[in-house]
């Protein structure tokens, strides 16, 4: 008679384990999505910065300004 109780306990433990794994997967997915969004924003910001630097360089060249900092 102990076997059914042990089996039920094992099933309950397995269910808890699977719920925990599911929560971890959901959390990892959210983190991965956040990282992907951050990387996309960084790419856009990098492009904008590059355009601004190019524009400033043109203006400095046109006005004969020193570009040393």
Provide tags for this entry:
69 residues; rod-shaped; 1 helix; mainly alpha; 88% helix
Count of discrete structural domains: 1
Radius of gyration, in angstroms, nearest whole number: 29 Å
Helix tally equals 1
By DSSP, the count of extended strands is 0
Helix content: over 70%
Distance between the termini: 83 Å
- Beta-strand portion reads under 5%
The low-confidence parts are: none
Mean pLDDT: 90
Shape: rod-shaped
* Series of H and E elements: H
What structural category do the secondary elements indicate?
Answer: mainly alpha
Q: Oligomeric status of the shown chains?
A: single chain
Biggest pleated-sheet summary: none
Secondary structure elements and pairings:
Blueprint: H1 2-62
Characterization of this structure:
It contains 1 helix and no strands. The model has no long low-confidence stretch (mean pLDDT 90). The protein has one helix spanning 2-62. It has one domain. 88% of the residues lie in helices and 0% in strands. It is an all-alpha fold.
Describe the structure in brief.
The protein is built from one helix and no strands.
